[in-house]
């Protein structure tokens, strides 16, 4: 099989594209001379053109598609744009727009953007993984599409999540784009609408059983680590994320961002809020609306923090009240609880059952109100006003994504608490002016921690990613907030500083791995924190410093035509 050429005569490759910023010598070396207009453009001029093109798009999904095409046609230009306009572009790359992209994935599909492994491929997964063109992959995000954001089972349409997530790993933490692998496993779907949709690109079969999925994942984890030894695996948007995490967390370098990343970033916000609260930890009362895996993961990490603040595990656990669709979760409610809900089930309700959130709020008088329910507006005006009545500075975190599923908006929270709420949300909200003061909404976005967790784990070659490393990422994040940011209502640092935040998170993840003996990079063990920060930054991909392509030297030395033919001959 020979390499195919496009009509312009050069071979198409995701890592090898003509670029108007390349000088004439580079163009000649790459044999792209003449394939672009003769003018050599600055990065700033390229960015100006791209932003003008982006602004011409009238809908968020059109902007998403434009950016996706840019990433695939000129990866360095794409990431230069991301770094220079991070707050503008990150919502278009990931939440909230990625939700719409996933819903329409089979409609808007234009080009390969990741690796798809189907259930029918079992027994051949390693061979298929080897089809991925990059040979030095360090990080993968894996989803089975069974619970995409708050949108349900989207099957292979969930590929937008690994693609977007890994773009943030690169943008936020400088993991090289060619070292990332977006991966979707197609185990069927129970979404009848998709199964009947002629455009749906996944297998037309019902989702396999948990036992069949477990066997498939066993083969996958072996395949990934055989092809890419030490690869960091991040699980994302599995309907039941606990089995895989429990099965692999001490065997491979892996973590689950829905459980652990969400828990860590929300814990960081809670740490910051509690540092500025006059209510001691032992008197905190947290009501969680939503008792899924993410909510339980968040609460367990806060329990760990409460224990480090002096409470026993039982005392810390009893600071939490969980509400699901049937009301307050109690031991004597009369239904069989899912296993992950048992830990926080109440046994002190004296036989009383509370069927709805307003009843629970009246009963508990919470200091903390967490939303992971995907029920828009359930934190309504009466509940928010009660939170302000119970507390001088109520802690209110509507965390559901996308913003259309948020339990309340920033404006609602500030308006009905007289501007006193300490607020963080899962999706971005606009600023709110209260009594003439501009208040900034904090977004408890996982991008504050997962890029640093991934980067730190890669750089120290972690044998596995321990819960202590995850916990440490939260503490590290909480240390990065500036006083000026908190005074404007923020519980998280400005996203304009995301790369420096990721360096600090990565450093502390590395330090915790070293303390536990999980690191396999001895050369950095004796570095001071300042030296380690400099070393981490030296390892981060910076698109502004990329003059060619990662494989340019190899292509020039070997002869790019010969190399392309050699790769093609293996197919």
SSE blueprint:
Elements: H1 24-30, H2 43-55, H3 60-73, H4 75-84, H5 86-93, H6 97-103, H7 105-108, E1 115-118, H8 125-129, E2 139-143, H9 160-173, E3 180-186, H10 192-196, H11 210-227, E4 232-235, H12 242-248, E5 254-256, H13 257-275, E6 286-289, H14 293-308, H15 313-317, E7 320-324, E8 327-328, H16 357-364, E9 368-371, H17 381-390, E10 395-398, H18 410-415, E11 422-425, E12 432-434, E13 437-439, E14 442-443, H19 450-459, H20 467-478, H21 483-487, H22 498-516, H23 529-539, H24 552-558, H25 560-569
Parallel strand pairs: 1-3, 2-3, 2-4, 4-5, 6-7, 6-9, 9-10, 10-11, 11-14
Antiparallel strand pairs: 7-8, 12-13
Walk me through what this model shows.
With about 575 residues, the chain is an alpha/beta fold. Helices cover about 45% and strands about 10% of the residues. The chain has helices spanning about 25-30, 45-55, 60-75, 75-85, 85-95, 95-105, 105-110, 125-130, 160-175, 190-195, 210-225, 240-250, 255-275, 295-310, 315, 355-365, 380-390, 410-415, 450-460, 465-480, 485, 500-515, 530-540, 550-560, 560-570; strands at about 115-120, 140-145, 180-185, 230-235, 255, 285-290, 320-325, 325-330, 370, 395-400, 420-425, 430-435, 435-440, 440-445. A seven-stranded mixed β-sheet has the order 8-7-6-9-10-11-14, sandwiched between helices. It has a five-stranded parallel β-sheet with strand order 1-3-2-4-5, sandwiched between helices. Helix 13 packs across helix 14 (about 295-310). The chain is globular and about 80 Å long. The termini are close together.
């Amino acid at each position: 099989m020979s390499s195919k050429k496009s009509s312009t005569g050069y071979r198409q490759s995701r890592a090898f594209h003509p670029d108007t910023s390349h000088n004439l010598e580079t163009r000649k070396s790459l044999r792209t001379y003449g394939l672009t207009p003769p003018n050599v453009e600055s990065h700033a001029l390229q960015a100006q053109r791209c932003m003008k093109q982006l602004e011409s798009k009238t809908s968020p999904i059109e902007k998403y598609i434009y950016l996706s095409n840019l990433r695939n046609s000129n990866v360095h230009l794409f990431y230069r744009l991301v770094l220079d306009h991070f707050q503008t572009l990150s919502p278009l790359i990931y939440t909230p727009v990625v939700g719409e992209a996933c819903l329409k994935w089979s409609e808007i599909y234009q080009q390969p953007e990741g690796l798809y492994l189907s259930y029918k491929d079992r027994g051949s997964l390693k061979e298929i993984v080897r089809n991925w063109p990059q040979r030095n992959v360090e990080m993968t995000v894996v989803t089975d599409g069974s619970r995409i954001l708050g949108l349900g089972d989207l099957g292979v349409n969930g590929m937008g999540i690994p693609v977007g997530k890994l773009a943030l790993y690169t943008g936020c933490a400088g993991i090289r784009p060619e070292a990332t692998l977006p991966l979707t496993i197609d185990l069927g779907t129970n979404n009848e609408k998709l199964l009947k949709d002629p455009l749906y690109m996944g297998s037309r079969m019902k989702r396999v059983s948990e036992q069949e999925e477990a066997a498939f994942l066993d083969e996958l984890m072996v395949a990934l680590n055989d092809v890419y030894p030490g690869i960091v695996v991040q699980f994302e948007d599995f309907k039941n994320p606990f089995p895989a995490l429990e099965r692999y967390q001490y065997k491979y370098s892996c973590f689950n961002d829905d459980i652990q990343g969400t828990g860590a970033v929300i814990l960081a916000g809670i740490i910051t809020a509690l540092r500025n609260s006059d209510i001691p930890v032992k008197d905190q009362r947290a009501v969680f609306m939503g008792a899924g895996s993410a909510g339980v993961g968040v609460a367990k990490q806060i329990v760990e923090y409460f224990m480090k603040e002096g409470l026993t595990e039982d005392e810390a656990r009893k600071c939490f009240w969980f509400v699901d669709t049937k009301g307050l979760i109690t031991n004597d409610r009369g239904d069989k609880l899912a296993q992950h809900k048992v830990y926080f089930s109440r046994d002190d309700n004296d036989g009383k059952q509370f069927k709805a959130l307003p009843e629970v709020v009246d009963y508990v008088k919470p200091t903390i109100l967490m939303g992971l329910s995907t029920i828009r507006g359930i934190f309504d005006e009466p509940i928010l006003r009660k939170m302000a009545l119970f507390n001088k500075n109520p802690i209110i975190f509507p965390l559901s994504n996308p913003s259309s599923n948020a339990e309340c908006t920033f404006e609602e929270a500030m308006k009905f608490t007289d501007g006193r709420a300490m607020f963080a949300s899962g999706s971005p909200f606009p600023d709110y002016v209260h009594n003439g003061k501009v208040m900034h909404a904090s977004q408890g976005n996982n991008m504050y921690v997962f890029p640093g967790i991934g980067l730190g784990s890669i750089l120290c070659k972690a044998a596995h990613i321990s819960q202590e490393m995850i916990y440490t990422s939260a503490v590290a994040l909480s240390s990065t907030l500036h006083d000026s940011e908190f005074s404007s209502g923020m519980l998280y640092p400005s996203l304009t500083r995301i790369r420096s935040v990721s360096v600090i998170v990565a450093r502390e993840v590395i330090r915790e791995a070293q303390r536990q003996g999980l690191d396999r990079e001895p050369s950095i063990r004796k570095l001071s924190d300042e030296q380690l920060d400099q070393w981490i930054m030296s390892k981060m991909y910076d698109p502004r410093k990329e003059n060619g392509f990662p494989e340019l030297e190899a292509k020039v030395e070997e002869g790019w035509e010969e190399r392309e033919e050699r790769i093609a001959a293996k197919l």
